[in-house]
Amino acid sequence: MKGGSFSQWKAAAGLLFCVMVFASAERPVFTNHFLVELHKGGEEEARQVAGEHGFGVRKLPFTEGLYHFYHNGLAKAKRRHSLHHRQQLERDPRVKMALQQEGFNRKKRGYRDLNEIDINMNDPLFTKQWYLINTGQADGTPGLDLNVAEAWELGYTGKGVTIGIMDDGIDYLHPDLASNYNAEASYDFSSNDPYPYPRYTDDWFNSHGTRCAGEVSAAANNNICGVGVAYNSKVAGIRMLDQPFMTDIIEASSISHMPQLIDIYSASWGPTDNGKTVDGPRELTLQAMADGVNKVKSFLLP
Question: Which of 14, 117, 262, 270 is most enclosed, with most CB atoms within 10 A?
Fold first, then answer.
């Protein structure tokens, strides 16, 4: 809601989601992230308030006067409000509102256990990428692919475009991604630092973002792995999935990160698909999306 107050757009978005979202019967989960609004003052005032109460702080780029406070001394997810920390903030005369963020789930799209996939991970050759150029590999139908060969011949290879991979991080040291990695446009919202490197596990669960990045921006003609659909594009890592629960602040911050540098945001994840849950973006994420659309519109106007 451009020009509206926090309470106005929150109320409007809340009315919309009364129709869209079914209330969960489970008890809510609370995180170590807080949405904070000050009575007055800017970023310097916010940093001072956060420091005095043991919080880190980030300004939310898509709105004025709202800040993301995070406390590394708190559990990332628990069933009860952190009353002590919230009350500390609420009692501060400089703080107008402090809202502890509830946690909710986001699931990676297309992920399957590696044991269910019959693939040799040590030899992902270009000729195996049937979705790029299908010559009938694995008894497939020749020509049933993404038709990228024709696009490449016309010169459309992603050059000059940066794609932001919103996921569990990307392995920007991988030799097939390193040359196309855009460090300036990258950020880790799970650890609050500029290095969105994945937290690898024994089952490679946190390789999802790296695989998404490879599908898009893996370099061509370097004798390594396969080829990305847009192999001359730049790729930015936005690490935001590797935590117990998603929050509205993290989702909104991720989708609005560096719009002056990122041309396309890739999000291969979403709410839990269990036949019972009807879910979607929360209030801050809706505002971030609207803000992004308005900025793009302003760029296009003469």
Answer: 262
Residues 172 and 240 in one domain: yes
Tokens of 241: 């999935």
Considering the domain architecture, whether residues 92 and 206 belong to the same structural domain is answered as: no
Do 187 and 254 belong to one domain?
yes
Beta strand pairing status for 264-266 and 162-167?
A: parallel
Residues 244 and 166 in one domain: yes
pLDDT digits (tens, 9 = 90+) for 60-93: 999 889 999 999 989 888 888 889 999 999 999 9
Domain match, 177 and 290 both: yes
What pLDDT is stored for residue 116 in this prediction? Answer: 43
- Nearest 5°: phi and psi at 28? -70, 160
**According to the model, what pLDDT value does residue 100 have?**
96
The sign of the dihedral angle between the CA atoms of 213, 219, 222, 227 is positive
The C-alpha R_g of the chain, in whole angstroms, comes to 21
CA gap 50, 67 in Å, rounded: 10
Range of the domain at 92: 29-103
Pairing of strands 162-167, 29-38: unpaired
- Mean pLDDT score across all residues of the chain: 85
Q: Is the pLDDT of residue 4 over 80?
A: no
17 has a pLDDT exceeding 90: no
- Do 5 and 34 contact (CB within 8 A), yes or no? no
Q: How far apart are CA 59 and CA 140, in angstroms?
A: 50
Which residue from 54, 57, 42, 40 is spatially nearest to 93, judged by alpha carbons? 40
* CATH number of the domain where residue 237 is located: 3.40.50.200
Give backbone dihedrals phi and psi of 289, rounded to 5 degrees, phi first.
-65, -45
Q: Which stretch of DSSP H or E encloses residue 292? A: helix 283-300
CATH of the domain at 96: 3.30.70.850
- H or E stretch covering 286: helix 283-300
How does pLDDT run across 99-112, given as a tens digit for each residue?
A: 999 999 988 775 54
